[in-house]
Design brief:
99 residues, mainly alpha, 5 helices, 84% helix, elongated
Length: 99
Amino acid sequence: MTTPIGLSVADLIKAPLAMANLIIIVSGLIGGTLARFLFRGIDDDRAKGLALGLAAHAFGTVEAWQISHTAGRYAAFGLAVNGLVTAVWVPIFISALSI
């Protein structure tokens, strides 16, 4: 998920904001940096883009646009879906655990 969504969710579930911010940024940097290496045996740009959008959020989406327009579109879709699902389900899941 992107940093703004992640920090909002972290605030809702009372998680440390600095730690959430660090995890979000580092996961994006690592995913965007290692993408070309990890995808060397994968030929489908749709799969590359979706994986980058889901796992490496904005950094991954930028990397996907450098791979191809198809990968970029799928990365943007994955980023949006991941943000939506995380923003809706994580607070519900956390509140269910604390009951």
